[in-house]
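Final report, closing paragraph on structural work. Over the funding period we assembled a curated collection of sequence-structure pairs, and we close with a single example.
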Amino acid sequence: MTEILKAGKAGIRKAAAALKRGGVVAFPTETVYGLGADGLDPVACARIFEIKGRPHFDPLILHECSAARAKKLFSSVPPAAERLMKKFWPGPLTLVLPKAKAVPDIVTAGLGTVAVRVPAGRHALALIKAAGRPVAAPSANRFGALSPTTAAHVKTQLDGGPDIILDGGKTRIGVESTIITFARGVPVLLRPGGLPLEEIEAVAGPVSAPSRRAAGPAAPGCLKKHYAPQVKLRLITPGAAVRPSASAAYLAFTGRPAGKWAAVKVLSPSGDLREAAAGLFGALHALERSGARVIYAEKVPQHGLGRAIMDRLRRASA
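Its predicted structure, as stored:
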């Protein structure tokens, strides 16, 4: 049975002790809840894959509590990556760079690179610092399912898996971190996320699109089908002619649709993409539970955090 603890000093102390023993702990970050284990312990990391039902070809992200400690997980860091670390860590940015020898192959899926970030969430930072080691942590959900932004979401999907769930309330950003790698010194976007591309380019220069020739994912969350509810999701243009149905749910960007639906969620009446991102997975969890057989999801503008929202909706609808 999984123990649920408040993310206060006592709960964090107990969770850190569990990590040191090779345990698995679900914990809040500023993006979504993570499923964490000692990132330098291959046996502990193997439990993450087992609990999630995650394939071993999908790499994990290592989380550290400072840039100085995070850089020790890389064998080399290009100047543009240094600038990004200085500007955006702690924060929702993951960097994929050549790995240090100490990083286990199970974390990197056998690749020569490792994904690392320093989260901004105070509970996450306190946990990592108390554990005294990097924490490997994908999202705390079943593989391919909706990401969790509350402890209740984690419990629904994974109860009985992790040793502890730290309850720190609802996450602030609501979508996973942005993932950047480098090709010949040029930044490459692997996954849009909680740090908008425009802010990255202001620091590191133009960001390229990833190559489509890779045999497997270079970073987490990059598979074609991902972040999906248990019912069919269909992407639509706002204002598209969709017949209301008591067996269908509707995810709107700014305005409530007419007619009778199984359930309706509006992401942001004011059109605020940050508000929309923060509420995205919570809305999808609620619509998934509505009894609807299909969810119609409106597209959002593809700038700022809209890129991350559309990435999640496209993968959910694949």
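The longest strand covers residues 33-38. The chain has ten helices and 14 strands. We thank the funder for supporting this effort.
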